[in-house]
Each structure stands twice: as structure tokens, then as C-alpha cells.
Amino acid sequence: MAYDADVIVIGAGLAGLTATAELVDAGRKVILLDQEPEQSLGGQAHWSFGGLFLVGSPEQRRMRIRDSRELAWQDWLGTAGFDRDEDHWPRRWAEAYVGFAAGEKRSWLRQQGLRLFPVVGWAERGGYDATGHGNSVPRFHITWGTGPGVVEPFERRVREGAARGLVDLRFRHRVTGLTRSAGSVDTVSGDVLAPSDAERGTASSRESVGTFELRAQAVIVTSGGIGGNHDLVRANWPERLGTPPKKLLSGVPAHVDGELLGVAEAAGARMINRDRMWHYTEGIENWNPIWSRHGIRILPGPSSLWLDATGKRLPVPLFPGFDTLGTLEHIMRTGHEYTWFVLSQKIIEKEFTLSGSEQNPDLTGKSVRQVLGRARAGAPGPVQAFMDHGADFIVERELPALVRRMNDLTGDKLIDETELRREIAARDREIDNKYTKDLQIMALRGARGYLGDKLVRVATPHRLLDPKSGPLIAVRLNILTRKSLGGLETDLSSRVLAADGETLPGVYAAGEAAGFGGGGVHGYRSLEGTFLGGCLFSGRVAGRAAAQAVD
Description:
By secondary structure, the protein is an alpha+beta fold.
């Protein structure tokens, strides 16, 4: 029987582009399918902040950061908490990925033209002991150009492959079936959707105008996760995180629906760790949304006072930027689904970074002048826009007015001004003394011991109720969907495994669809900057392995 291509790649996000680019380098013919129109090429990665996990990089050394593969592996294990029989392949993938991040990852990306912002960020600090969750040192490397800057080298390689006749880009093709002939999964079928001029990220039509059936020697599934499908998120919500939230914001477009994972399962693939997922607790409603329920995550510095819905401080070490899922677990035990940041104008000017390419036009546009403009007084433009227009932001000079509006915004009337003033005043007394028992103040002083945080990420410690630091600001924080941590189980060659542990002939998987490798390379928790890197690494492995497997 004739084949339409050597390999069919399903999903034109970062993992799919990477796999396709590697297949082109090997001289293989590829059909790249995606249900969205061409303007959405690059998938979720386009919208990202472009953070990459690197170990022992020149950027770290220039910032006086001492890192090593051994320290990174210690942090990964303490964060992942691998404890299941199904963690065999995820753990092996994790070890391979840490080696990649400490080895050729940076040079490989640099050869393709990718460049990095010089200041290394410190996300997911942990706050427990040395073998617990979190990054021991800063490892969050921001791509110059943010998400689009990560996508560009791989999109360029794929389009060059198309110009050479090696890549057939087929958009508006929704896969609904994977079937076998002669024992191997080699047939991909589905619906051809109506052409769409929907802008990137916006909902596109699901009207079918025909069907298709294609055959290849290998199929690579790179269709992403479930974050845009809130019903599926709730269905897989783990008991350890409590009752699923009634209100969820979406950190990804609606087409991240997880439907192809079900198609792969129907073909015999094994899905593991489906209850492991990564959602953010610092979500704010986008005042200028692109997709339905569009949320933006605040990447906070450590100074904001974090309160639950009743006005009580979150317990140690649930400070801003320290333990995302630990904070989520605590929130879901409070009986309320939202929390608050209370902070000052001085803090928001230096410590609020909004995640995403569209919220960082200076870095996305590679404008040195605009980046230097962040040092000027005042909040960055995108942050100021949320202060002016965002539904979750309250700005007031005096605490009574701030509390009144906090209660009006939620309608719950849970914040008591007297109690909140007592909490803030107690915190402020600790600021005035170089000795303190307040661990958050210890943490922010410790953060300023790192040059990168002192320069651009952590405000000088000050009293929140000092009028010179005002006005006061309250931000309601919502739960924001983002990533699936489980996925299709794969071996170290990205070959998908069946329920009996044997390979599913002809099928590979990469990116979020494969839990970024193995079916859950992160275990229960993630170290920031590892999602894009996981797409790159697993996509590269899948492309190279499939290229070797086909005749």
C-alpha cells in the first residue's frame, strides 16, 4: 500500500514543529496536521513568556549563580515526588532532560539563533528543606523575543522544509481516528474543517466540510493537553487538591481540548498520571481578552501580602512565587476559590510581571529601549493597563476604602478592616527592625541577596501603610488553568506504550500530550521554565527516533 508521507505529525505547536524540523533534517517527508488555521501555528508556545530551564549557563555565571547538574537533579526529585509504578519512564525522562538542560540545550538553541535575556529569574523557590520542592538557585532564562522567539527557529526550519517539498502543512484537519493495517498504526483519519480567518487564539469554526484519510509509516502525536477544556480539567481533578473550582480562568485557548488524547487511547495508547496537573493561583481576568475566560498570570516578586478570602495571611512558606501547587491545595481547603494580594505602589512597580508574550511587548519586540524603560518610575504599561481597567484590581489611598471595595467586588463581605489593619501593622513593625521572625520578610531580604532580584524583581523592603509608598493596591487572584502533567506513556525514544507495556507500533508522542516525556516527566509538581523545554526536548527525541524508524 502506498504511503502519503514518511511521518504524520498531529499538532503544530512547539513540540510538533520541533519534531517536524528534525524529520526534515533527516530528509523525511512529513504531513503536519492541525485543526486550527495557519495563523495559530506555534500553538500555546506563542503566548508564553518564553522561560527556559537551564543549568550551569553563562547567564547564571555572570549573575554569580553557582549551579550544577547534581543540584538540579536534587531539586527535580524533591519537586516531582515520584512515587508510582507508572513513574518508571517519567523518572528516566526527567534524568535525561536535566542532563539536556545542563548540557547541549543552550548551545543547540543558540545555533538556531535563539538568544536569552541576561537576567536569570527565580521562580518556584520552594521554601522547604534542601531536598524538598523548588529551585535552589535561579534557573528561569527568558527568551529574547518571549514565546514567539522560541517558536521562530522551528517554524523557520519547517517552512524551509515545505519549500523543499518535504513538509505538507495541512491546517483545519481535525483527527478523529488512528487505525492499523498490517499490525502498525499507520492511518490517520478525520474531518476537514471549514476555512477560518479567526485571529490567533480566538475560537474557530468546527463546521466540517469533508473528511480525510492519510497513511504514513509513523505517527507523532503532539496535540497538547486539556487546559482549555474545563469539563475535562474538573473530571481529572485530583482528590488531594480538594473539590474542583466552580470558576476557572483559562490560561490557554479553547482549542487545547484534549480530544486527541482520547483518540490515541481508543487506538491502544496508555494514558497515565491524568490526575497530575499544573494550574496557577495568581490568575487575573484579562481586561482585553483574546479567548473565552482569558486569564493572565501574575509572576510576582516576594513582597506582596497574600491573604485568603477572609483576610488571613497564607501560611508559611506559601509566599508569592514559592510553591504554586502547595498554595492551590491550601486555597481549596479554605472553602473559597479566590485569594488577595495586598501591596503598595512601590511593590507593583518593581515586582509585577505579567506572564505572556502579549503582556511583555518590550521583550517580545526585542526592544532594548523599551526594556530599559522598565527602570523608570511608575508601573510598566501592561501592568498599569490592568490597574486602570482590570476587574480584579483595586487602588485606594486609605485602607478603609480599600477594604470596602474588596468586599464590594466579591459580595462576600469577608474582610474585616480592623483585623486586616492589625495584620499589616504587625508586618510593618517587623520591616522596621533588621531582626525579624516573619519568614516572608526574611525571604524577601534573602531574595535581594541575589543581584538579579535586587536589580529588577524585588522592591526595597518598606512599610505597606507608609503613605510615601502608596497608594495601596488589592488584587483578587483566581485559579487559572495551564498544563497537564500526565499524558501518553512513552519510552526514551518517544514510542507510545500500550496497556501491556509494549510499544504501540508506529505511534510516537511528544510535548504536553506525552506529559512532556514519558507520560509525566514533572511528577506532581513542576520547576518553572520546563514546559517549553519539555516540548523542545521530547519533540527533538520523537522526530529523530521516527526518522530512524521509517524506511
